[in-house]
Design goal:
The complex is a heterodimer of chains A (422) and B (340).
Chain A lengths: L1 E11 L4 E11 L3 E5 L6 H9 L6 E6 L2 E2 L5 H7 E4 L11 H6 L14 H13 L15 H14 L4 E5 L7 H18 L2 E5 L3 H7 L2 E6 L2 E6 L1 H4 L2 H8 L3 E5 L6 E5 L15 E5 L6 H10 L2 E8 L3 H8 L4 E4 L7 H13 L2 E4 L9 H13 L2 E5 L13 H11 L3 E3 L4 H11 L1
Parallel strand pairs in A: 3-8, 3-9, 6-7, 7-8, 13-14, 13-16, 14-15, 16-17, 17-18
Antiparallel strand pairs in A: 1-2, 1-4, 4-5, 9-10, 11-12
Chain B lengths: L6 H21 L10 H6 L6 H35 L12 H15 L10 H20 L8 H26 L3 H9 L7 H28 L3 H6 L4 H23 L5 H13 L3 H25 L8 H19 L1 H5 L3
Helix pairs in contact in B: 1-3, 1-12, 3-8, 3-10, 3-11, 3-12, 4-5, 4-6, 4-10, 5-6, 5-10, 8-10, 8-12, 11-12, 11-13, 12-13
The chains are: A alpha/beta (422), B mainly alpha (340).
Chain lengths: 422, 340
């Protein structure tokens, strides 16, 4: 059964509409996260649900009742609202604040009955705040205070909790504490929970349903997997992201990629760096090159190799060879063309065997031509030489031709320094 | 967080001090009357004690009652404004009542108007009307789409207050030689007040108090902020209107009979909050009792410290209340301010 039903809801604070013809149905017992960029209207939507705002057009129904026509006390018995932040200059103790949740049930003078005491006790118990009941609200930590406000909302004995970024001011431990509490309430008591969040990953981990808002309308709604689709997130927020499945929770996990948006400290039109890697040895190098604004290419690697996959995600040109095959003449030639254009050649901490010796030979030729060669310090060449000594020999010649050995952490500064000194 | 005393004990102590104080204050004054003779003079005066009875019943008693009523009013009104505006620096005069009343009272003095409305002389009447009118104006000014956010109300009040203060300054310049009368009015005084003023203030006192008592619990929730109060079921706009109306009635009528007695409305609610906690169902009446006690003693000292000269009572309240308040602040700093 649906708890909330919104029909063609429009709302504007000034002239510019914040929400446009919004249609939405929220089922009883759902754990719904409202996501969206700043100004997408998610907090406004929450305030319409709580009755703090009334729509200029359309209707917001709560169990068939128009929310804006309900009495404040009637609403307070049905909905518990938790704001983003709770500050109080008046020295109320926690117990008194939680007791305020009973207000909509009490006569005008507000004497608490046995039933009210019970609800207050229960709310304190669920939120684990029993021992802090006599503490002044200002002397609680951020997480305790936020749980206190949730306790107050629970004392209202509501059918739904509405939360506006409940953890945005808390560190991760308290974030987890609050979200675990919400998940428990949703699961054990079938309490409907609707929250606004900026943290896509937290929302994805805990909410059973997400709604993605953009420019005042709902762009997608459904399971986290369906809503947090990379293309959808990218077009909504205007950033490049990668969405992976968390191996443990199975929930989608969103990471930012160094794409379109310019990063701090980035250089413009950086030099071209060709990378020789493979087997994951070049992942961080590729990411770093992209992050700092260098042009990059990779090769030769086998298709399906970890580094090849990373380069694909980062949109870095690469020379591929078929899986588990040695570098062919064609691939070698293609790689040579890249290396000829590159300003730097960067060799990752990669093992050399019969399959990829060609890469090392190309590096040697490049060094002879005067191309600057950098080698990431890692295992000694003897340890990663699977050619019976020929790789080590080439490595030594490469060194004598002026190849520089450098720590991974140093390499980007070195490259940037080279740019600046020129 | 409250201090060590339970709320009812604080209540009883304050009430006792008030009654005992009233009795002592009767004996005190430029004509000393021994305490032991008080009951006799009051109820069964001897042949030479007729004048003394007159002094007690017609001069001292009404002044004592009036100072208590005014103190009660200002204490309660200050407590309401501090809660409503969520601002511990608020006092009953913050939103322009004082400036409005001041302009009214000064106009009557400058123009030398003499008339009677509802038994009020020109000065008190214009002060009362000026105070009420200003708050009404500020309330309308702060209105946005059927709502009056407290922040706009506060800002509009302060702005209008500044404007009217400027008008007051112009009127003071116009007063010329009679400036000391204005000064006494501005500092607040019960000099020469009698039963007439008591009768005047009582209806507003009762109406205002009844309104506020019904809103005490709403005020507890309004200190959380308007939206939070709404979400807990308070009819916010209605409650705000009633609170402003009640506190304004109390303040304007107090100002009309005694001028601008300062400090009571700011400090007493704080003292009581430190002692008894922030629950307005307890705090409102306690602030009233505290204010009454404070002004009773203030006025008694004002008229007996430097006879025959009377000090403005506002001077006494500031001199006596300031240090005590500072002491309480230091002592309860931890619990009262919470230390972020």
């Amino acid at each position: 059964m649906s708890l909330y039903e919104l029909k063609e809801v429009s709302f504007s604070y000034e002239k510019e509409p914040v929400l446009k013809d919004l249609q939405l149905e929220i089922r009883e017992g759902s754990f719904l996260g409202l996501l969206g960029p700043n100004g997408s209207g998610k907090t406004t939507l929450l305030r319409l649900l709580s009755g703090a705002l009334s729509p200029q057009k359309g209707n917001v129904f709560f169990k068939g009742q128009e929310v804006s026509l309900m009495e404040p006390a009637e609403r307070a018995r049905a909905m518990g609202v938790v704001p983003q932040e709770f500050n109080l200059d008046f020295p109320f103790v926690l117990e008194e604040v939680v007791a305020m949740g009973r207000y909509p049930y009490l006569p005008w003078w507000g004497a608490l009955g046995a039933m009210d005491q019970e609800k207050i006790e229960e709310a304190l118990y669920i939120t684990g705040l029993e021992r802090l009941r006599k503490r002044t609200i200002n002397r609680l930590s951020g997480g305790e205070r936020q749980r206190g406000v949730i306790a107050r909302a629970l004392a209202q004995d509501p059918q739904v909790l509405l939360l506006d970024e409940p953890v945005s001011n808390l560190d991760i431990r308290y974030q987890q504490e609050v979200f675990e509490l919400l998940a428990r309430l949703n699961h054990d008591r079938d309490l409907t929970i609707i929250l606004v969040s900026h943290d896509l990953n937290l929302a994805a981990q805990y909410c059973s349903e997400l709604a993605l808002l953009s420019q005042g309308s709902i762009k997608a709604m459904g399971s986290p997997k369906k809503v947090l689709e990379a293309g959808l997130v990218e077009s909504t927020y205007g950033v490049a992201v990668e969405v992976a499945e968390n191996a443990l929770t199975g929930r989608p996990q969103v990471s930012l990629l160094p794409h379109r948006a310019r990063a701090a400290g980035e250089i413009e039109n950086g030099p071209w760096v060709h990378v020789i890697g493979g087997g994951g040895s070049a992942q961080q190098i590729l990411y770093g090159l992209k992050r700092w604004g260098f042009r990059a290419s990779l090769g030769v690697v086998n298709a399906g190799d970890t580094d090849a996959e990373v380069a694909r995600r980062l949109d870095i040109p690469r020379v591929l060879e078929a899986p588990f095959s040695a570098i062919s003449a064609g691939a070698r030639e293609a790689n040579e063309k890249y290396i000829e254009q590159a300003d730097f050649l960067l060799i990752a901490d990669v093992p050399f065997g019969g399959g990829n010796m060609a890469n090392l030979e190309l590096a040697l030729e490049a060094a002879r031509r005067g191309c600057r060669v950098l080698r990431i310090k890692g295992k000694s060449i003897e340890e990663r030489d699977y050619t019976g000594g020929s790789a080590a020999w080439l490595w030594e010649v490469l060194g004598s031709l002026g190849a520089i050995d450098i720590e991974l952490e140093e390499v980007f500064n070195h490259l940037k320094g080279g740019v600046e000194s020129e | 967080m409250q201090g060590n005393l339970s709320k009812s004990v604080i209540f009883i102590i304050t009430l006792f001090l008030l009654l005992a104080g009233a009795f002592l204050a009767l004996a005190w004054g430029s004509v000393p009357i021994p305490w032991s003779r008080l009951p006799v003079i009051l109820f069964n005066p001897g042949p030479e004690e007729g004048t003394l009875q007159l002094i007690l019943v017609q001069l001292r008693l009404p002044r004592i009652v009036l100072s208590m009523l005014v103190g009660f009013s200002l204490g309660v009104a200050g407590c309401v404004f501090q809660g409503l505006l969520r601002n511990p620096m608020a006092d009953p005069y913050l939103v322009g009542i004082s400036a409005g009343a001041g302009v009214g009272a000064l106009m009557a003095m400058v123009l030398g108007w003499q008339f009677q409305v509802l038994g009020l002389g020109a000065g008190p009447f214009l002060a009362f009307a000026g105070g009420l009118g200003t708050v009404l104006f500020v309330y309308r000014l702060a209105r946005v789409g059927g709502k009056v956010p407290v922040t706009s109300f506060l800002l509009a009040g302060v702005a209008v207050g500044f404007l009217l203060n400027a008008v007051m300054s112009v009127l003071m310049v116009a007063m010329g030689r009679d400036l000391h009368r204005v000064l006494y009015w501005l500092l607040g005084s019960f000099s020469g007040r009698g039963w007439t003023q008591v009768q005047l203030i009582i209806p507003y006192f009762i109406i205002g108090l009844i309104i506020l008592v019904t809103q005490a619990r709403n005020l507890n929730l309004l200190v959380l902020g308007e939206e939070a109060a709404l979400h807990l079921g308070v009819n916010v706009e209605k409650s705000k209107r009633l609170l402003i109306a009640g506190a304004t009635l109390l303040t304007a009528s107090a100002v009309a009979v005694s001028g601008l007695v300062g400090f009571v409305g700011l400090i007493i609610p704080h003292i009581m909050r430190i002692l008894a906690g922030p629950d307005h169902r307890v705090l409102l009446p306690l602030s009233g009792l505290g204010g009454a006690l404070f002004l009773l003693w203030g006025d008694t000292m004002a008229r007996s410290l430097m006879p025959p000269v009377e000090l403005p009572v506002g001077v006494i309240t500031a001199l006596a209340g300031g240090p005590y308040f500072l002491y309480l602040l230091r002592r309860y700093r931890e619990t009262y301010f919470g230390g972020g």
